[in-house]
Amino acid sequence: MRSTSNPAFRNLPQGNAAAHGQYGPNLGFNQPQGGVPGHGAPQAPAASGDRPMTVDDVVMKTGMSLGVALITGIAAAIWAQGQAAANAMGPIIGVMIAGMLVGLGLSLFIIFKQKASGPLTLAYSAAEGVFLGAITGLFEMLYPGIALQAILGTGAVFGVMLVVYKTGAVKVTPKLRKWVMGALGGVVVLMLLNLVLGLFGVNMGLRDGGALAILFSVVVIGVAAFCLLMDFDMADQMIRDGMPSKFAWFAAFGLMTTLVWLYLEILRLLSYLQSD
């Protein structure tokens, strides 16, 4: 597999294209000739008993994961607003921490065990939905309308990057992958450094809502957007490699991890802008 900024896509088993006949379709690009339009070239039955994954598999599994996250997120946000109105911050913080820890634990298990599992991916999406929903409920109390803005902003970035990838406006080359991974590493280091120094009362200005914090959030959103571009390319590569259809859940999980990060950063940026 290609190198990627998303740990969910690293060290995946190689698809056995030869066992499946022709490669499956990619994300609508470079369609092989002679196949059914929109569905790639004819495919022989998979030797493993599982057909090769298709773009429809990725779209459906990702849509299901987003749907679960949205449902649990809305429920958690409504509940959090009710608790906040009653000045009951303890339960909100407890639910946020629980959702974060459950999501983190499931993500680590999926990544390190390479589990392409629908139940695990949907459980991860539900946990992240609870986590994001609780946070969003609090932000919505402080900045009415910010939740819808963050959702629309995340959807807009996702849509733009998908169009950029589909049209080939930005090619995912080895050079671009190295640049994105380097930028991601730099962002993570700065976040960790800011966290550690903050414990000792040192303010780097990266998360205080000032001009530097706004600039940093814009940079992080840009890096997350390019990570989405690499996620699209990795899912495309999985399809071209003829990996079993169950790995569409892995592609959906990888996209969800990036979207969760992107949503949080957009929510943070919007709060900075509305507090000025």
TrEMBL record:
Pfam families in the record: BaxI_1
InterPro entries registered for this protein in UniProt: BaxI_1-like
Keywords, ordered alphabetically: Membrane, Transmembrane, Transmembrane helix
Residue stretches spanning the membrane: 58-80, 92-112, 119-139, 145-167, 179-200, 212-235, 247-264
UniProt region (Disordered), positions on chain: 22-52
Protein known as: Bax inhibitor-1/YccA family protein
Species, as recorded: Amycolatopsis antarctica
